[in-house]
Specification:
Radius of gyration of chain A: 23 Å
Chains: A mainly alpha (about 280), B mainly alpha (about 270), C alpha+beta (about 325)
Strand order of the largest sheet of chain C: 6-7-8-3-9-10
Strand content of chain A: under 5%
Distance between the termini of chain A: 29 Å
CATH class of the largest domain in chain A: Mainly Alpha
Largest sheet of chain C: 6 strands, mixed
Helix content of chain C: 25-40%
Shape of chain C: elongated
Largest sheet of chain A: none
Number of domains of chain C: 2
Strand content of chain C: 25-35%
Largest interface: A-B, 102 and 95 residues
Oligomer: heterotrimer
CATH architecture of the largest domain in chain C: 3-Layer(aba) Sandwich
Order of helices and strands of chain A: HHHHHHHHHHHHH
Chain lengths: ~280, ~270, ~325
């Protein structure tokens, strides 16, 4: 790309703007990221590893992985189905459906937890019934899963809808005229075309699922070693003034974020497209 | 209109989408409003106009709006630099933008506190000149700016990338200077994206919990945000009050989003 | 295999895309659907393919006498070439071409070897030898088009349908490919229906031209006949290169530039001719075209041979007599 002289700024202005932007990014983004690692190692590697080997920490990691392993596939399935429905077909209420998919973005995570307490908590609609059959949803794994699923609900769909809309349905129609059925079209024509967007959607959904705090905090009950996910464990340690341990556990989550961003960059590099994730 | 659709899977995909959406999102939200309605119209208003709730609401919406505004300004700067200039470290900068999306909010909360606490990295300097960053509304504002920043950049980036330079060149040939061109040609074209970015950042900030509670200090009437108030009502087992506050919050958020959507539509309809 | 279309209607919401369309496409013919954008030609093609369905009613589409209206697109055995080819971007040329064979149910699917043979045969038929393993983005526009054609032919279609087959190509490639397609059609003899908005393309390529406008068919016939005897003013104007003249008694006539005789002013026949002044001369082609202004002020385009231009030694400002053809 060659830009004509008239549409770019003078060198001095450019340098000034780049410096200012660099300053903003360093101060707002880079500094907090570095702080996680530096604070974690403030008391040395021994304390760092001690915190990670702690039984409560290990059980928190396990719970976090379990909750993500259930809620992410659920939302992936939903995201693919929703994107297929709204991009391959035109029907009444389509615009409304698209807005509803975005709805959870406007709902506070705390409310995303609260709604489940209202339904399944001891004072909730199904509370008595659940108690009678000795089923536990709130303060247990199912509650954590559904609260996580609520919060991470739109991510895969949001990634796929613009992508599939821009690709159109030509290739699917061509496959139809060549005699392919629904599943064959989906697996052999659609999936290869959306795989990078899908992968990024799943990664983002996963990062948010593992890191979810507000919603899970409301439904988990904070039972140490039982219903504490990793972010909740970080909170507990922090409130007990075990700062280094809290930051040590936080590094695991920060690494997850970095890996997610790294893969995103790599995908963009390979495909030459900007994945637009919110 | 014919009923037969050429591409298969309409019934299955739409059916699954609607059922999943209803079970996971719509029915639970409806239950929330039903629960809130249970206290009656007057009870509802009374609970919402309680002084502590009002203080929290003022803080939540005020800090969120200020934070979204700062995110918009800095986001515009960073987007411009990322799209228009080539410089060492550009790819890294681009990759870093999404950090607040990917970093769990609790982690953001404790690390921002570590930076802005009176004995923190930056907080210590601010403390010396008499500014209290953490445990004050300023801290809440900083956390919310962190959270909202990527929304602005990622909304504006594709729009600025697609914005062809012809119009800028045309403005230059007509004698406009760079700043005039930016103000009168580029900025109006970016306006819808700016507003969308602001709205997304604002909506996200209103509901934000994890990154705020560590840095805010959580003093009723002073540094207590609405989501925290909901949690403390729950901890007092005052479920109806929690539902009422949540319903009020949702109504205001939805209404705000709706209004800004209308504004956006109006801007998009302006003849170019 | 012939295609018969009987009273097909199509509406999108309140918009009428097709109104009472009936058409015969003879077996083995190459038929062009010609019309401006929005005339309904692509919709008609997609209905024949089964990619859209016509409004419910008595409308029928027959392939060799068999009504296919209720047969879904995937079972109709039509070869459809999309305007932008719709090649599967992630597949090689060979995989694109074999797709239709590999998705057949297991009991109908040819063996791997048979599929490979068929692909090789098609690749040489469309002159893409050596490009088996390329992907669509590594091909030129003309090559992509031929891959799309080979892919459509792989399923041994009963009819071939092409949507603006040359629409996305450069002028030169367009011309070459047009000739090639004509020869190709003659070689394989498959009943072919194609959509175009380019009258030159339709006239040069097709055995039968169907002129469409505003959801209706204006005229059907062989190219020569349509060009020489347009049935409506629209067809006259759409086929291009026509003067719209108003005679002194107020009647509108359509006269093609080459139908007008140019003589010296001295040879003016007051009964039939018109006096005119040369305004502009253009002679950088096989024929010379003249822009003249008649004595009543109308501008007329005329075409004469280069030889005649030289013999008459005409230049701008000269007066000439125009001999109009007798009204038929």
């Amino acid at each position: 790309m060659s830009h004509s002289e008239v549409t770019t700024e003078s060198r001095a202005v450019r340098v000034l703007l780049i410096t200012a932007a660099g300053g903003v990014v360093t101060l707002f983004l880079l500094l907090p990221l570095m702080a996680v690692f530096i604070e974690a190692l403030r008391k040395g590697w021994e304390v760092f590893f001690e915190a990670l080997r702690d039984e409560a920490a290990l059980s928190a990691v396990k719970l976090t992985l379990t909750a993500a392993a259930i809620s992410v596939p659920m939302n992936t399935l939903f995201g693919v189905a929703a994107a297929w429905a709204v991009t391959k077909f035109r029907f009444k209420g389509r615009a409304l459906l698209i807005s509803l998919i975005d709805l959870p973005f406007a709902v506070s995570p705390v409310i995303a937890g609260l709604v489940w307490v209202l339904l399944f908590g001891s004072q909730g609609w199904f509370g008595e019934w659940l108690e009678k059959y000795d089923l536990k949803i709130i303060f247990a794994l199912p509650g954590i899963v559904i609260a996580t699923a609520f919060v991470t609900f739109p991510f895969v769909a949001r990634e796929l809808i613009p992508l599939m809309e821009s690709q159109g349905s030509d290739q699917e129609e061509a496959a139809v005229t060549l005699g392919a059925g629904g599943w064959k079209i989906f697996w052999r024509v659609t999936v290869p075309n959306i795989k990078w967007g899908l992968l990024y959607g799943i990664l983002l959904c996963n990062a948010r699922a593992m890191g979810e705090f507000g919603a899970v905090s409301v439904v988990s009950g904070h039972i140490r070693g039982e219903t504490n996910t990793l972010p909740l464990h970080v909170e507990v340690l922090y409130n007990e003034y075990q700062f280094s341990a809290a930051f040590a556990c936080a590094t695991l989550l920060a690494l997850l974020a970095l890996v997610t961003l790294g893969i995103k960059s790599a995908i963009e590099h390979f495909t030459g497209h900007v994945a637009n994730g919110h | 209109m014919s009923k037969r659709r050429v591409i298969p899977g309409f019934g299955l995909s739409l059916g699954f989408t609607v059922i999943y959406l209803s079970l996971l999102i719509l029915i639970p939200l409806a239950a929330l409003f039903l629960k809130a309605a249970g206290v009656g119209w007057r009870g509802w208003l009374e609970l919402l106009t309680n002084e502590r709730v009002l203080a929290a609401a003022k803080l939540t919406f005020g800090a969120s709006a200020c934070a979204a505004a700062l995110s918009t300004v800095t986001g515009l700067l960073v987007t411009w630099v990322l799209v228009r200039y080539r410089f060492p470290g550009r790819r890294l900068m681009d990759a870093m933008i999404d950090l607040p999306f990917a970093l769990p909010t609790a982690v953001a909360g404790i690390t921002l506190t570590a930076i802005y606490a009176p004995n923190g990295w930056i907080g210590a300097y601010l403390d010396r000149i008499g500014i209290k960053a953490a445990y004050s509304p300023l801290g809440i504002f900083l956390a919310l700016t962190f959270i909202g920043f990527p929304f602005v950049v990622r909304t504006m980036q594709p729009v600025l990338e697609d914005f062809t330079r012809d119009t800028e060149e045309a403005a230059a040939t007509l004698g406009a200077g760079r700043w005039t061109t930016f103000r009168r040609v580029v900025l109006p074209a970016l306006m819808p994206a700016l507003i969308t970015g602001f709205t997304l950042a604002f909506a996200r900030a209103i509901g934000e919990y994890g990154s705020v509670i560590f840095i805010s200090g959580n003093l009723p009437y002073k540094t207590e945000i609405l989501p925290l108030l909901i949690v403390s009502k729950l901890e007092e087992f005052n479920v109806p009050a929690a539902a009422v506050i949540a319903s009020g919050m949702l109504i205001i958020s939805f209404a705000l989003l709706f209004c800004i959507n209308l504004l956006q539509r109006w801007l998009n309809w302006q003849p170019r | 295999m012939s295609i018969s279309i009987h009273s097909i209607h199509k509406t999108f919401g309140t918009y009428k895309a097709l109104e009472d369309i009936s058409l015969e496409v003879p077996n083995g013919s190459l038929t062009a659907l010609l019309g401006p954008s929005g005339s309904g030609k692509t919709t008609l093609l997609r209905i024949v393919a089964g990619l859209e369905s016509a409004d419910p009613g008595p409308g029928r589409i027959l392939f060799h006498g068999e009504n296919v209206v209720d047969i879904p697109a995937g079972k109709r055995q039509v070869g459809f070439v999309f305007q932008h080819y719709a090649l599967f971007r992630h597949m090689t040329v060979a995989d694109n071409i074999s797709f239709g064979l590999t998705v057949l149910p297991r009991n109908q699917r040819p063996s791997r070897n048979e599929i490979n043979d068929r692909v090789a045969e098609l690749i040489s038929l469309v002159k893409l030898d050596g490009l088996h393993q390329r992907r669509p983005h590594e091909l030129s526009g003309g090559q992509r088009q031929r891959v799309a054609l080979a892919r459509a032919l792989a399923i041994r279609p009963k009819v071939l349908l092409l949507d603006e087959p040359f629409g996305a190509l450069d002028a030169q490639v367009r011309k070459d490919l047009r000739r090639w397609l004509r020869l190709f059609h003659d070689e394989i003899g498959l009943t072919t229906l194609f959509v175009t908005h380019d009258q030159e393309e339709a006239l040069e390529l097709a055995d039968q031209v169907v002129v469409m406008r505003n959801a209706r068919i204006e005229q059907v016939g062989p190219p020569q006949k349509i060009y020489d005897h347009p049935r409506t003013p629209f067809v006259y104007e759409f086929l291009g290169n026509v003067n719209k003249l108003v005679t002194p008694d107020g009647v509108t006539r359509y006269v093609r530039p080459h139908e007008i005789e140019v003589k010296f002013a001295a040879e003016l026949d007051l009964q039939t001719d018109r006096l005119a002044e040369v305004q502009h001369l253009f002679s950088a082609g096989p024929v010379a075209s003249l822009s003249v202004r008649a004595d009543d002020g109308q501008f007329i385009e005329v075409e004469i041979s280069r030889k005649q231009l030289e013999e008459m030694a005409l230049s701008v400002g000269d007066k000439v007599a125009l001999g109009l053809p007798a009204t038929s």
